[in-house]
Amino acid sequence: MKVAYQTDIGHQRKQNQDRVAVFTNKFGNQLLVIADGIGGNRSGDIAAEQTVTILGDQFKNRPPRTLMEGIRWFARETQSINDQILSQSKHNLQMQGMGTTMVAAITFNDAVVVANIGDSRGYILHQNLLTQITVDHSLVNELVKTGDISEDEALKLPQSNIITRAIGISPDAQIEVNRFELNHGDQLLMCSDGLFKTVAKDQIIKVLELPIPLEEKCAQLVKMANDAGGPDNITVLIGINSDQEG
After folding, report:
1. Rounded CA gap, 59 and 54, in Å?
2. C-alpha 6, offset from chain centre
3. What residues contact 41, with CB distance under 8 A and at least 6 apart?
4. 2-241 — its CATH code?
5. Span 218-244, mean pLDDT?
6. Does residue 134 contact residue 103 with C-beta atoms inside 8 Å?
7. Strand partners, 104
8. Are 98 and 43 in contact (CB under 8 A)?
9. Which of 3, 27, 26, 20 is nearest to 108 (CA)?
């Protein structure tokens, strides 16, 4: 899979607490990961950095070999990272309350295993249809699921930044893990909430469908989020299951 990514501080934050990376193991599989630190100034960036770094190290040293192994691997490694961050929070006053969201994917030929916790998202673009493949662990999404508000209303509520699950917040890191088939030409989009809360879904699709390099698609999406005010850090990762980028 060809992959490109970009992260940006946005216009209203004092620091970028998003982290993003791509790792390749000895079998040629890739781990794509985004973490969005939470806790304000309480070391959210450290939680995000550690999540990406530790997950990447484990992927290179003890990688899963199959899709089913990938599902179990995500659950085990995320829980381990959660335990480490909780331990640091207990022993370091400056780190109390730190945590991070995560969305990550492992590539296996024409399939991916996708894991998420918090409100960082994953999507697959297939034949002009952009489908969200992660579940937001947020207060407003609970209201959407009960039918109290619509998805569009959820993005506009002040409470849209309240998440119900994250790494480093509770003893049990309840991640969602699923597998998805990838057809030739499908695109995988992963992002922090700084993108999808500011750029409409139809505008994202238009950029993904442009016959331009992946790096330019990432740059355009980041620019659109900043043009919309850039209220948060913005991180975008795009992968395409194809020999060509266009």
Report:
1. 8
2. 12
3. none
4. 3.60.40.10
5. 93
6. yes
7. 33, 115
8. yes
9. 27
